[in-house]
Design a protein that fits this description.
The chain is mostly helical. 77% of the residues lie in helices and 0% in strands.
Length: 65
């Protein structure tokens, strides 16, 4: 793992410390999966709409043609 991180840092012409700090900042700037899902659920409840599973599958199948 260390070698992979070092290679990624080198590609960006950064020290390992700089690279790891920027990666941690990137990760911390995004909501966690649980927080994101909660927001989706809240927006869905606020919209008071529901898409039937059959409609979702139909749209998916149309995209595959």
């Amino acid at each position: 793992m260390r070698d992979e991180l070092a290679a990624r840092a080198a590609l960006q012409r950064q020290s390992m410390q700089e690279f790891l700090r920027s990666e941690l900042e990137r990760i911390a700037s995004r909501p966690s999966l649980d927080t994101w899902l909660q927001g989706v659920r809240e927006r869905k409840a606020a919209a008071e709409t529901r898409v039937r599973p059959a409609n979702i599958l139909s749209a998916r199948d149309m995209d595959r043609r």
